[in-house]
Design brief:
This protein is an alpha+beta fold. 37% of the residues lie in helices and 18% in strands.
């Protein structure tokens, strides 16, 4: 269309009555200049017209015609110069989309064999973190996630350092829980016909199915390992290695068979090791005080004391009344003071004794408990009463008073200890010393045997206890009964209380190599250091290790027994022959073959007189032999390992069983360092329980729940970042709120990586890198800060302090990058000419940051790091971030103290400037910080000169206005000048530069540049580009950018 129409009207652009010329709009209609829509119906536009014409006396005006016939809100791209700005561009997504993306990245690692290339195939020093095997029963819980992710942090870091950190995952697959699972899955009719081989076959299937399920869950966490070749304790080669360790201990004289008191689980019907016990809170026992009538006083006692002993009873105390039928002695401490007391019952007392022997120190306490008055008749040392005899209150036998050990104290009880050698370790030791018989009238089910007389057939922990107490009371021997809260051992599998009973078992004689074990402990680095004290105390105080179990599903103890005499046959030759069979067939061979087939040739003639043993090894012996089954058996895995890492409860479990087997057979500890972590609790610090409903399932954290709004899918990297965020040396907390906070940190880090990648879209490191000496001071400062970060993170990784890495990276991303550097460099990144050296300098620094940050976060959030690496805007030789390795600090990045102090002062002043700018914004005096000019005075002369040097730089970055993000900064000699500004304040500096400083805030002079948004008095000086400043004009001209011009209608 064309034509001319002259009129006047109100211009929407300038807000006053001005003569307007009719011009043709590029959409085909007529446009009144300054108006926002055409006069005649236009064609359908997809963006504002933006054609420019000249308004007499007012310069250029722009056509803002749009499709909609309504007043249009201005958008950012209304600015014609927006297309001349260097905006970030990257394919690295803002959203992680972890549910989809993480499996794709894991598939990339697998297809490209990244782990195999790094951990197995390349040359280099080995690093061995030996995996403690989780039990193959059920799904993984959050504790498993904590443990395996911590191990993966360490391995990935070691791989980045160039070491061969091959990680062989393991599973513990023998033992009662799996056996019970199999039995529970069978009908009662099927169980009747169940043979050991059938049970073992079913147990093998169950265990291997569980291993596969758990393996897939571990892999989803982003864990790298020999997943196709794990070690499993039911594998024939592993079982053979375990039996070989057992054989070495036999040869070294550390294995014996004996009848001794052991922890026994009536609910599991098997002996238990100390590591198979747990001590739940809230246990109470029926404790009783019992009077044992003295038969005859010791001949070594004085005549006076002996006279007082006539008619007296010995007072004892026990928390296990069911052991009274097995009482064979009373123990005393030879250095304690004892007394014979006259007893006068008070109201409520059931005491029928008239005289009692008790520890003198405990008389006040006993008077209250027994509800009696006591009068001391005579006193004596514990050593004096040795040899005195007493009569059992329930059975017709007389027993002696003996000297016990330091375990007899006045902390509780009477100071005289009821001693049953068949039901206690200390009791057993005392019994051995005095030649006492080993009476244990309790069977495998925890039921009294015929030896218990009238109590036979009763369960010792329930009706048996009640029957004993009632019998004592009926006979006048019960002095008092009370509930007693204390730690009591429970079977860790069935969660039922255990007992101690004497049985025929196989033992490892810890006493035979205790000294060597304690010496080996001192050679190990324990992290934290308290771990050494803990395992030392446990090793010093532990009794011999009962290693036999009365189960079918396990590694059999390779022993044969004489059918008639019961004498065992087991030596180096017989064991090595069994090993050769197990290596080929597994331990099922023990149950499949006859005795003759299991014996070496030289012993086969004895086969008719022999039978196979039915005991299996303690599962802690299984896992405790893993150093033999894995280390030294596979290429690149040597013994001892560099590190063992498990929960703190393993000082009495895997750490100790591994130590004992390795020292007993090889003479050295199986590890160089041991690192422990705490347990996982909920957000309130409570233990997780399904009944409470506070269990955190790692799969839900990764994949989300049924309601994705309430239980969003965070992905494996957020779960891993939670592990990195906690100080795992003590118990750690997790919950929805905590995970949400960690997710925020993850997103902030991801956004920062995206911003950096976006601003490197046109950067080629080979051709565009700027040398360090040519970088602006701002860039050198951030590289110095980055060098500090790299050194801090390297030290934190070396010390396994992953929370310090997490914190350091978070601080750097938020404080150093987002709050400062990335904020102040936007101007030169966006506004400078693309190849400008100052912009290239900034891109050089961004690339250094990216190449350093990615390996720092790669062990913690490997998927995000790999995702960023795969979206680098330039080609690289390494296909994975992990193949690229760790970044090392360039020595040039370490600046002088004066330089660092200058920038610390600038940042302190910047904080004060920002406070005054915010005050101005609140009072609506200013909008953007670029609408302001800063007036600055500093008292320190050296700092003033340093700031002058920065102000004088022409590199487009170091002038203070860029650091403050204002349109101008003026340094003044007089603080009063700064105080005259619209807003001002005074602060003080500490450190190298001291003294006060004053900042003033004024409105910026000139007009706003349409391109960089800085204010300048030079805006409008150029006729062609009247809306831009003198800094942007050369860039626009060099680019050849032309604003579309409106043609005058004819």
């Amino acid at each position: 269309m064309s034509g001319r129409l002259t009129f006047s009207g109100r211009c929407q652009a300038y807000g006053s009555a001005l003569p307007l010329q009719q011009k043709s709009c590029r959409f085909g209609g007529f446009m009144k200049m300054g108006m926002r829509r055409p006069v005649s119906p236009p064609m359908v536009p997809t963006e504002p017209c933006r054609m420019v014409g000249t308004l007499p006396g007012k310069g250029q005006v722009r056509c803002m015609a749009t499709q909609k016939n309504e007043k249009r809100k201005k958008k950012k791209d209304d600015n014609p110069y927006s297309e001349t700005v260097n905006l970030p561009t990257t394919s690295f997504d803002m959203r992680a989309n972890s549910v989809v993306k993480e499996p794709q990245i894991q598939e990339f690692w697998q297809k490209n064999r990244v782990y195999e290339e790094l951990a197995i195939e390349r040359e280099g020093e080995s690093y061995i973190l030996h995996d403690g095997p989780p039990y193959a029963n059920g799904d993984l819980h959050i504790g498993h996630a904590l443990n395996k992710i911590l191990k993966d942090f360490i391995n990935k870091y070691q791989l980045l350092l160039g070491k061969k950190a091959r990680f062989v995952p393991g599973w513990d697959t023998h033992g009662l829980p799996i056996e019970l699972k199999v039995l529970q899955s069978m009908k009662s009719s099927e169980r009747k016909d169940l043979t050991p081989i059938t049970l073992r076959e079913k147990a093998t299937t169950f265990a291997l199915d569980t291993v596969e399920a758990q393996k897939e869950q571990f892999k989803r966490y982003g864990i790298w390992a020999d997943w196709d070749a794990p070690y499993v304790t039911l594998q024939p080669e592993y079982e053979a290695a375990q039996i070989r360790v057992f054989g070495k201990m036999v040869t070294n004289g550390h294995i014996y068979r004996g009848r001794k008191p052991v922890y026994w689980s009536p609910s599991s019907r098997t002996a238990l090791a100390e590591a198979e016990l747990e001590y739940p809170d809230g246990h109470t026992s029926r404790s009783i005080y019992v009077a044992l009538p003295i038969e005859k006083a010791s001949e070594t006692m004085s005549e006076d004391v002996r006279q007082h002993m006539d008619g007296a009873s010995i007072a004892v105390w026990t928390t296990t009344p069911w052991t009274i039928p097995a009482n064979l002695a009373v123990g005393v401490n030879e250095v304690l003071d004892y007394a014979v007391v006259q007893v006068t019952p008070k109201e409520g007392s059931i005491c029928q004794a008239t005289k009692l022997v008790v520890a003198e120190e405990l008389i006040p306490v006993l008077k209250e408990k027994l509800k009696v008055d006591m009068t001391v008749l005579c006193s004596f040392k514990g050593s004096d009463i040795e040899g005195t005899t007493y009569r059992h209150p329930l059975f017709d036998r007389v027993s002696p008073v003996v000297i016990g050990g330091d375990y007899i104290t006045t902390d509780a009880g009477t100071g005289l200890v009821h001693t049953a050698p068949g039901h206690g370790q200390e009791d057993y030791m005392v019994g051995q010393k005095y030649g006492l018989p080993l009476l244990s009238p309790v069977n495998d089910a925890g039921v009294f045997t015929d030896e218990a007389g009238p109590f036979a057939g009763l369960k010792v922990q329930t009706e048996g206890t009640s029957a004993v107490v009632e019998a004592l009371q009926s006979g006048g021997a019960l002095l008092c009964e009370e509930e007693y809260a204390h730690r009591y051992p429970y079977d860790w599998r069935t969660k039922k209380p255990t007992i101690t009973r004497a049985t025929d078992q196989w033992f490892a004689s810890v006493e035979g190599f205790r000294r060597e074990a304690l010496a080996a402990i001192k050679e190990v680095k324990w992290i934290p250091e308290s771990g050494e004290n803990r395992i030392t105390a446990m090793t010093e105080g532990r009794s011999d290790w009962c290693i036999s179990r009365q189960r079918t599903w396990g590694v059999p103890i390779p022993v044969f027994y004489d059918i008639d005499s019961g004498e065992p046959l087991m030596n180096e030759e017989t064991i090595e022959h069994i090993v050769s069979i197990v290596e080929k067939e597994g331990t099922d061979a023990w149950y499949k073959h006859d005795v003759v087939d299991l014996l070496p040739e030289s012993y086969r003639e004895m086969a008719p007189k022999l039978k196979k043993g039915t005991d299996t090894m303690d599962v802690w012996f299984d896992s405790g032999s893993s150093w033999s089954g894995v280390l030294g058996q596979r290429e690149g895995l040597d013994h001892p390992a560099d590190l063992y890492l498990e929960g703190s409860d393993q000082h009495r479990g895997w750490f100790q069983s591994s130590l004992l087997t390795s020292v007993a057979s090889e003479g050295v500890a199986p590890y160089k360092s041991v690192l422990t972590h705490g347990f996982v609790l909920d957000e309130k610090g409570m233990k997780m329980s399904k009944s409470i409903g506070n269990v955190v399932d790692p799969r839900k954290v990764i994949l989300g729940g049924d309601n994705q709004k309430k239980e969003p899918a965070y992905g494996a990297d957020v779960l891993r970042l939670w592990v990195a965020s906690v100080d795992y040396t003590s118990d750690v907390l997790i919950g929805d709120r905590i995970i949400s906070q960690v997710a925020d940190v993850y997103r902030k880090t991801r956004f920062t990586l995206r911003y950096i990648l976006g601003n490197l879209s046109d950067f080629d490191p080979e051709n565009n890198t700027v040398e360090y000496k040519d970088l602006p001071a701002t860039d050198k400062y951030i590289l110095n800060r980055f060098a500090t970060l790299l050194n801090e993170c390297r030290a934190a990784y070396d010390n396994y302090q992953f929370y310090r890495v997490y914190q350091a990276v978070q601080r750097f991303v938020v404080l150093d990058l987002s709050n400062f550097y990335l904020d102040v460099v936007k101007d030169r990144l966006y506004v400078s000419e693309p190849t400008n050296e100052s912009r290239r300098a900034c891109q050089t620094v961004l690339n250094h940051l990216l190449m350093g940050i990615l390996p720092i976060i790669a062990p913690l959030t490997p998927h995000m790091a790999e995702d960023a690496w795969q979206n680098l805007p330039y080609s690289v030789s390494k296909k994975s971030i992990f193949l690229n390795g760790w970044t090392h600090v360039d020595e040039e990045w370490n600046v002088s103290q004066e330089f660092e102090s200058t920038w610390k002062s600038i940042l302190a002043i910047r904080d004060e400037v920002n406070q005054q700018l915010e005050k101005a914004r609140v009072e609506k005096a200013l909008g953007s910080s670029l609408e302001a000019n800063v007036v600055l005075h500093v008292e320190d002369a050296d700092l003033f000169r340093a700031l002058e040097d920065l102000q004088a730089s022409d590199n487009g970055q170091d002038a203070l206005r860029y650091a403050f993000i204002t349109s101008d900064v003026k340094l003044v000699n007089d603080p009063s000048t700064a105080k005259e500004a619209l807003y001002s304040s005074t602060g003080s500096l500490e450190g190298t530069f001291k003294g006060s400083f004053t900042v003033g805030i004024n409105k910026a002079e000139g007009s706003k540049c349409a391109r960089c948004w800085n204010y300048s008095t030079q805006v409008g000086m150029d006729q062609e580009h009247a809306e831009i400043c003198e800094r942007c004009l050369p860039v626009i001209r060099k680019s050849g950018f032309k604003i579309p011009t409106l043609s005058t209608a004819a």
